[in-house]
Amino acid sequence: MRALFIVDPLERLALAGDTSYALMLACAARGWSVWTCELRHLALAHDDAIADAAPTIVTSATTPADAFQLEARSTHRLAEFDVVLMRKDPPVDVEYLHATWILEHARGKAVLVNDPRGLRELNEHLAVLRFPDITPPTIVTRSIEQVRAFQRAHGGTIVVKPVDGYGGLGIFVVRDGDPNASSIIETATCAGTRWTIAQRYLPEIVRGDKRIILVDGEPIGALLRVPASNEARGNLHVGGRAVKSSLDERDRAIVARVAPVLREHGQILVGLDVIGGMLTELNITSPTGVRQLSRLDDRDCAAPIVDCFERMARALRGH
User: Fold this and answer.
1) CA-CA distances (angstroms) from residue 254 to 83, 128, 146, 304?
2) How do residues 277-316 score in pLDDT, each as one tens digit?
3) Which of 57, 129, 168, 190 is deepest in the core (most CB within 10 A)?
4) Contact residues for 143 (Cβ-Cβ < 8 A; gap 6+)
5) Quick one: which of 184, 192, 245 has its CA closest to 219?
6) Is the overall model pTM greater than 0.70, yes or no?
7) Where are the alpha helices (DSSP H) in 105-248?
8) By the 8 A CB rule, do 105 and 79 touch?
9) Would you state the pLDDT for residue 240?
10) DSSP state of 228
């Protein structure tokens, strides 16, 4: 098997918590040929998606300099790879959008993780609103007045976040009586010129934001991301603490509700964020948590993910 990872520069990966690295190690352990490239290395040769990719020897280490050994780059059709993993971190900007159009030309020629059409169609914050019965009350607006009215209607405390946000950036808790509340709302909406998400505040966040990792719609495990003191976000890279967890009946109901839509859109590796039994976000661009889950559960949680990739690749090739 040959796997191509489209990633950020390898030297920037934070290996201790990087899911792409976990998947590379799992592929290498199976004897797969691991290749890497960046978005800038993608191109089209007429109707064929190609990449200037480097064979990459991956070993267990603590720093990228020790973990990765790159051989000479060469140009290859994406169809030459069994699995192509789009693991570029957000933002989903114009460059990212252009890359998904290039990846379209590899459809049916390799397993695409995740499908580029789904990456465009399912905004990570807005896609949850396809499931209004399992999401907290939410509005998406440019109107400062509508945000303030929503705040009044939902007990005086809400969360505002950018439609195109990622990694916890731009997320604010807005509380009635906070002297900064008006300024936060004005900033979030860019003075009424940018769509902003306003969502009812879920006080259960203090106990943790549950990340459920799915592969082809099936959960492989869950962990809680517990915010640091004086912090409203559970994101691990801003100080959130990973805590062992499991799926309860409500979580499984959420998975069952969401999985068919994810499969329909070709989203194979997904992270669901659940707070207080409510779905708040779908993570499809480069979902994280596999390394933390592996440490908490004392098992290789990347293994079943790569098993799934292999099954899909063999089915695609007719093996």
Assistant:
1) 28, 11, 29, 21
2) 999 999 999 999 999 999 999 999 999 999 999 999 999 9
3) 168
4) 189, 192
5) 245
6) yes
7) 116-121, 144-153, 181-188
8) no
9) 76
10) P
Q: Using the structure block, give the residue that is written with the tokens 């409203």.
A: 232
Residue 264 CB coordination number (10 Å) = 11
Q: Residue 251: which residues within 8 A CB-CB, separation 6 or more?
A: 210, 212, 219, 222, 274, 277
In 3D, which of 20, 4, 1 has the Cα closest to residue 12?
20
Q: Tokens 């400062």 identify what position?
A: 144
Contact 194, 229 (CB under 8 A): no
- For 33-43, what is the mean pLDDT? 98
DSSP per position, 302-317: HHHHHHHHHHHHHHHH
Task: Catalogue all structural domains in the chain, each as residue range(s) with its CATH number.
Answer: 2-114+307-317 (3.40.50.20), 137-201 (3.30.1490.20), 204-299 (3.30.470.20)
Q: Are 227 and 205 a contacting pair, CB within 8 Å? A: yes
Which tens digits make up the pLDDT trace of 237-275?
A: 666 789 999 999 999 999 999 999 999 999 999 999 999
> Which range, of 29-43, 109-123, 167-181, averages the lowest pLDDT?
167-181
Query: Which element (helix H / strand E) includes 226?
Result: strand 218-226
Give the pLDDT score at 318.
Answer: 86
Across-strand partners of 225? 209, 242
